[in-house]
Write a structure and sequence with these properties.
This protein is α+β, with helices and mostly antiparallel strands. The chain is built from 3 helices and 7 strands. The protein has a 4-stranded antiparallel beta sheet, with no helix packed on it. Strands 1-2-3 form a 3-stranded antiparallel beta sheet, with no helix packed on it. A hairpin with a 2-residue loop joins β6 and β7.
Length: about 140
């Protein structure tokens, strides 16, 4: 059950795949996962703001579909998002966008020093853009 993948996680109807094949659906349109014994489990795709990643809920238990973020990185990115909420729509868009890009850079399998530096610079660039636009609008 750890091989579940969520495609199009941001759409209204994300797809849940197992080994590259979309899971079957029941008559109500919900995904169903069958184990070796023939038992069926209801599967739902969602998003975890704690981990900043898509999750799959199987029989009431949430399972992340991506590698978890280190706790300090997750805390800093979530604080950045919270500050964005206090800055209006522009802050929310820039904060959430920068946090998701940074999280994707940190999660890269072959993460190098360039990716870590980029993950730090993306939120800083978003903050500079926010201040620049705020000064320009006034």
């Amino acid at each position: 059950m750890n091989d579940l993948v969520v495609k199009r996680a941001w759409s209204r109807r994300p797809r849940v795949l197992l080994e590259g094949v979309e899971l079957p659906r029941d008559r109500w349109g919900s995904y169903v996962l069958l184990d070796e014994d023939g038992r069926s489990y209801q599967v739902q795709a969602g998003f975890s703001w704690r981990q900043l990643s898509p999750v799959v809920e199987v029989d009431g238990h949430q399972r992340p579909t991506l590698a978890p973020l280190p706790t300090p990185v997750r805390v800093v990115l979530l604080v950045f998002i919270v500050f964005g909420f206090f800055c209006g729509l522009q802050g929310v868009v820039l904060g959430v966008g920068a946090a998701l890009v940074s999280a994707a850079l940190v999660r890269r399998p072959q993460r190098g020093a360039v990716h870590v530096v980029a993950a730090v610079l993306v939120p800083l660039a978003a903050a500079v853009v926010f201040v620049g636009v705020a000064v320009w609008v006034q």
